[in-house]
Amino acid sequence: MFEAFRRWRRRRIVEHAELDPVLWQQTLAQLPFLSGLSVDENERLRQTVILFLHDKSIHGAGGLTLDAAMPLMIAAQACILVMNLDIEYYAGWVEVIVYPDEFVPAMEYVDEDGVVHTDHAPRAGEAWLQGPVILSWADVAPRTDGDGVNVVIHEFAHKLDMLNGDANGYPPLHAGMKRQDWVAAFAAAYADFCRRVAADEDTVIDPYAAESPAEFFAVMSEAFFEIPHAVQALYPLIYTQLQLFYKQDPRGRLPM
């Protein structure tokens, strides 16, 4: 009964949505990694975006005023992760906060010796457990270089990672996925990537991935959608696991 009601509710939301088709096409055109979407994929993404915008509050902070195109730009990038999953993967929180540029949250943390520190490092994005996603618009704004860096995908990958607690690089897997395969692939690739970064090797993938297993998963998710051929070439087992997790194969829609 509940599932039938949910399907009915979603259908009503989509049918009555006022999503400007011209603005939607402009949004897709500004995001090169979405250029190869099929007609069916485009429609699934559009409907997911409509549901996302219906359920989430996206607003500016720090003096930023959002125009009609800005929430759509954020939503399109956030929803590509769950296009073939379910919008319920983003349930349990409602707010996206957007600053004009990098922001400096005053965060306290306790080190292994019990000493309390305050982190004032500027950030382009942040995802809170059961809380908001915070973004820098300067880092969200469309890029045409396809360098594998995408702050929206990064932070929303953290949100998926947090579905089973604090972000640690091990999100809840789907039925049929094997935990041991995920752990083996990510542990080996993370160790190799950290070695490469420590040796000052040039890496196609953002070196920030070496910060922690959680950041490795988020950065690899960015690369999976933006530069999938590089992920496949460098860490094919990671590509396979992300393909299973996101239920997508970006290589098939993007040229090398």
Rounded to an integer in angstroms, the radius of gyration calculated over CA atoms is 18 Å
Q: How much of the residues is beta strand, in percent?
A: 5-15%
CATH class of the domain at 168-256: Alpha Beta
What gap, in angstroms, lies between the N and C termini?
46 Å
CATH superfamily of the domain at 168-256: Collagenase (Catalytic Domain)
The low-pLDDT segments are: none
- In the CATH classification, which architecture of the domain at 168-256 applies? 3-Layer(aba) Sandwich
The main sheet comes to: 4 strands, mixed
Average pLDDT reading: 91
User: Total strand count, please?
Assistant: 6
Q: State the order of secondary-structure elements, H for helix, E for strand.
A: HHHEHEEEEEHHHHHH
User: Strand sequence of the main sheet, in spatial order?
Assistant: 1-2-6-5
Structural class: alpha/beta
Number of helices: 10
Q: What is the overall silhouette?
A: globular
Helix content: 40-55%
Question: Can you put this structure into words, describing what you see?
Answer:
Strand 3 and strand 4 form a beta hairpin. The mean pLDDT is 91. With 256 residues, this protein is α/β, with parallel strands linked by helices. The N and C termini lie far apart (46 Å). 46% of the residues lie in helices and 9% in strands. The strands form two sheets. A four-stranded mixed β-sheet has the order 1-2-6-5. It has a two-stranded antiparallel ribbon with strand order 3-4. The protein has helices spanning 2-15, 21-29, 39-55, 69-79, 137-140, 151-161, 179-198, 213-226, 228-234, 236-246; strands spanning 57-60, 95-99, 107-110, 116-119, 125-127, 133-136.
